[in-house]
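Field reference: sequence -> structure
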Amino acid sequence: MSHKVYFEFPGRIVLIGFGSIGQGVLPLILRHIGVQPGRISIITAEDNGREIAAGYGVKFVREALTRENFRRILDANVGRGDFVLNVSVDVSSIALIKYCWERGAMYLDTCIEPWAGGYTSPTITPAKRTNYALREEALALKGSSTRVPTAVITHGANPGLVSHFVKQALLNIAADLGVEAAPRARAEWAKLSQKLGVTTIHIAERDTQVSSEPKRINEFVNTWSVDGFVGEGSQPAELGWGTHERNFPRDGKRQEFGCGAAIYLMQPGAATRVRTWTPKAKNFMGYLITHGESISIADYLSVKSSSDAIYRPTVHYAYHPSDAAVLSVHELQGRNWQLQDTKRIMMDDIVSGIDELGVLIAGHKKNAYWYGSQLSVEEARRLAPHNQATSLQVTISCLAGMIWAMENPNRGLVEPDDLDFRRILEICGPYLGPVIGEYTDWTPLSDRERLLPEDIDKSDPWQFKNVRVF
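Structure field:
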């Protein structure tokens, strides 16, 4: 079967990290970017995937990148016109972006990573361990660069793909409400969201993939990086904070620097639960895991007068991972956030299930609208090797972001919200399974107080107070 080659790339490509995402994106790169396997290198801290790399004729280097050695290791593999794809953990995104600019190379990552310990070290204040702080540090690089190679930050499935879902969903809602809309610039997207009356955006995800091998005691099981999930789940819970909110969380904290678009809670995201909804799962409880899109989307859709926001939606992630991962998180909490001794990523052992990932946009005249992907493990396996439903939603978005960067090679540092959403969805679409939009009359107050009275704000069902389980 022939596949469309979107870009003939003359440079070298370096993958940093080769876990489930690195292994899943490699065949997609070879399929859709014109590059010979001999011009691709993998640099990874672990031996996992060596045989996959060998099967594609790709160079494999097992060496962990650290503050002290990353320049020495990368110097032989990265130069002008090359591309660095960072899908690792514990390797500083900021350091790599600066390095790539020095070398004249493009860059993409799926989240802003600190060096090891940056998410959890007790010597770093909670405010500085947030994605808000990491984003502000990354955005500060814009002021020190002029016409440098494109560096795309936080472009996986989420953060990443979901920012493009938001734009398409806003256009769909506008069309259904008879609101004329042709936004192009950032301010026009924010004005459209305000005009539609959007108050709340959930990144609502339910992963129902099931393994043939049950989770064991002292084992953390997940459908993507265990270290990545535990790292972000251990960070303080964060969310973009809307201007409509009237009840500030008791354990909430405002940041004293930067754009001011988000707040954080003095508890880990994997210990914070919120109510949400998707078309197949219906209403469920998710973890309020901190993610870059919770901040960047809220910031992007802010309408300001002088420096003050007069409109901003509340934006947060609501994640119900696979049932095995939920049990793993429960055990992790009981261990006082000390990671289990054994880690396992579900892949070939998955027997059924889907990853239903989308955006729930609420507060407008039709109440709430979910737009996103309902990708099954069976279809994911048919579409691309070394993937399941969760990984493919990430890997195809990585690929799309790489292609956009190659087509726009001198844009400096950009976030998903800065990219052409139509181009990204065009590339991702064939790999996402059913992509649907569905309205619902569900709210966080639906069928509440069945067992006991609750302290809820019935004047506005989409208040964060009503969404969060305290």
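Note: DSSP finds 14 helices and 26 strands in the chain.
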